[in-house]
Write a structure and sequence with these properties.
The chain has 338 residues and is an alpha/beta fold. 17% of the residues lie in helices and 31% in strands. Residues 329-334 have low confidence and may be disordered. Residues 98-197 form the FAD-binding FR-type domain.
């Protein structure tokens, strides 16, 4: 049997077929819910169940136990088991649709032993005012995409990325050996819903794992020159000191910008490291007993995102004020990274 879904904010309704994910039914009915990965990993399609029940073929990784207990669900995986009333976010009127472009590799620089700074020149995308935090897809010869977040705010036709080499990765594993400046890539942009909530007056807690720094950096740089820039605390978690590929620049920001603080955290530090140790979300929770006055932006591996969400919620942060981008969930086996 079909079930009727009611959107609480507008009272609009649509029907979902048996076994059909709620997101698919909403799109079929002309209601573009905010979403991203469609695999239950990123959490972008989170909705609030006000009445009714849903089930899943498998529990989605992008929804924490605390979120489920509070009545949240992920529309891309949720299978309605009754009529529902939900609070859901639609794509904004000013949403920039993705399009395909040709990009020229302008630079390939090593940032660390396994991270490359890729700079693409995309003349046809000069007027694409993407939101800091979004990503693009590099389209491979077989038509499959590899997703990489922009590492800087919009800057004309130039786009830069931090790309971690994945051993055996079809694209990243050959980036430095098979590609060179002048080569052409087919790309799709802009993509993703990870971005700064500009209408929020709260201070910002930014938590990055590895090359999850890229979209976080893009958001931070878009705010630094604003006269009303919020206070920003950045926690960056990596394994070893050599993985802190932008450490010097971030320390410079911390010394020269009164509203910016930077805390690097190593999970596998050697005896020479005098800074913070352990998992990055643990450092955040050790430093802050009450996080209710912050908005949080998280980007990194799925386990880090899940652990951080749980920790932040336990310290008073509203689930609705936690924005995350689980950058390698859908393509972990084929090398997409942030």
């Amino acid at each position: 049997m079909t079930y009727r879904i009611t959107l609480s904010d507008t009272a609009d309704t649509f029907e979902v077929q048996p076994g059909e994910p709620l997101l698919d039914a909403a799109e079929r009915a002309g209601f573009p819910l905010v979403h991203d990965c469609r695999f239950g990993g990123c959490g972008a399609c989170r909705i609030k169940l006000l009445s009714g029940q849903v089930d899943y073929e498998e529990p989605p990784f992008g929804l924490t136990e605390e979120e489920r207990d509070q009545g949240y669900a992920l529309a891309c995986q949720a299978l309605p088991q009754s009529d529902l009333t939900v609070s859901a976010q639609l794509l904004p009127t000013g949403h920039i649709p993705a399009d395909f472009h040709q990009a020229t590799i302008e630079r390939l620089d090593k940032l660390s032993h396994d991270v490359t700074h890729l700079v693409l020149k995309i003349p046809s995308a000069r007027e694409v005012a993407f939101h800091p935090g979004q990503y693009l897809n590099v389209m491979l010869d077989d038509g499959s995409p590899r997703s990489f977040s922009m590492a800087s705010p919009p800057q004309g036709e130039t786009f830069d990325f931090h790309i971690r080499r994945v051993p055996g990765g079809y694209f990243t594993g050959h980036l430095e050996t098979h590609y060179q400046p002048g080569d052409i890539l087919d790309v799709e942009l802009p993509l993703g819903t990870f971005r700064h909530a500009v209408d929020s007056p709260r201070d910002l807690l930014m938590v990055a794992g590895g090359t999850g720094l890229a979209p976080i950096k893009s958001i931070i740089e878009s705010l630094l020159d604003r006269p009303d820039a919020p206070n920003i605390i950045l926690y960056w978690g990596v394994r070893h000191a050599e993985d802190l590929y932008l450490d010097e620049r971030l320390h410079h920001w911390a010394r020269t910008l009164p509203n910016f603080r930077y805390v690097p955290v190593l999970s596998e530090a050697d005896d020479q490291w005098g800074g913070r140790r352990g998992f990055v979300h643990e450092a955040v929770c050790q430093d802050h007993a009450d996080l209710s006055s912050f908005d949080a932006y998280l980007c990194g591996p799925p386990p880090m995102i899940a652990a951080a969400k749980n920790g932040l919620a336990q310290r008073g942060m509203s689930v609705e004020r936690i924005f995350s981008d689980s950058f390698n969930f859908t393509h972990e086996l084929d090398d997409s990274v942030a």
